[in-house]
Amino acid sequence: MKKVLTSFIFFFFSFLLFAQEEGRILISLNGEWEFDQTKTAFPPTKFSRKIPVPGLIHLAFPRILEYNKFFQKAEKDAVMQEQHNFLEDMDYTPMYNWYRRKIKIDKNLSDKQLFLTIRKSQYVTVVYVNGMLMGSSIECYTPIDMNITGAVKFGAENEILIQVGDRAWLPSEAAGSTDKEKVHYLPGIWDDVFISATGKLKVDKVLFLPSLAKKSVTAKILIRSLYPPQMT
């Protein structure tokens, strides 16, 4: 069974790598981005800082204004409290955090579907491309995947703007972690960011379900159609 499972997984991932090499193009957006903060949900008029991606907000340079507050010891000892609401002990100003990157998209990709993927970002992420809202997500530990094709200017420079909110604004239904020992939660993009160019059919998700009793492996593959819904 182990040999069968190993062989199957090796074959399948070899197929995925081949398919990616043949039909999917990845454009990494990791590296240095422009960065700044605002008290309101409007983007800054100018960007005065740089930040690495992946990188939480404490990695911005010059440092954010309240940098020291995120690393100072809390005045109250939250560990001994049976119930702890970190909002009551918050000693910093919640801010909107803005990441900006400009990138030229090759004209040869105009027949492709382009997806922007943020593998992990916290807390409450909103994406704009060339001033157009692409979507938002409250996910903190799973990838955010957005189709940005309609906003892209092929053969020209494109502005990607990512807004990341504060832990204080995370909805209660989101998985954002709560730690009785913590008062300060650092927001930001903390995993890879990239654009993938694909065809009209996209392998979206893959799930392997091995069964020792049956000596088998069931593979569930979700294929996403990117054809307009009006087309037959």
Mean pLDDT: 84
Using the coordinates above, name the CATH class: Mainly Beta
How much helix, percentage-wise, in residues?
Answer: 10-25%
Q: Report how far the terminal alpha carbons are from each other.
A: 42 Å
Task: Tell me which CATH architecture applies here.
Answer: Sandwich
How would you portray this structure in words?
By secondary structure, this protein is mostly beta strands. The protein has one domain: Galactose-binding domain-like (Jelly Rolls). Helices cover 11% and strands 38% of the residues. It is built from two helices and 15 strands. The chain has helices spanning 2-23, 86-89, and strands at 25-28, 31-38, 49-53, 55-56, 96-104, 113-118, 121-122, 125-129, 132-137, 144-147, 157-164, 188-189, 193-198, 201-211, 216-225. The protein has a six-stranded antiparallel β-sheet with strand order 3-2-5-11-8-9, with no helix packed on it. Strands 1-13-6-10 form a four-stranded antiparallel β-sheet. The longest helix has 22 residues, at 2-23.
Strand and helix map with partners:
Layout: H1 2-23, E1 25-28, E2 31-38, E3 49-53, E4 55-56, H2 86-89, E5 96-104, E6 113-118, E7 121-122, E8 125-129, E9 132-137, E10 144-147, E11 157-164, E12 188-189, E13 193-198, E14 201-211, E15 216-225
Antiparallel strand pairs: 1-13, 2-3, 2-5, 4-12, 5-11, 6-10, 6-13, 7-12, 8-9, 8-11, 14-15
Question: Characteristics of this structure?
Answer:
mainly beta, Jelly Rolls, six-stranded antiparallel beta sheet
Report a brief summary of the structure.
The protein has 232 residues and is mostly beta strands. The chain is 11% helix and 38% strand.
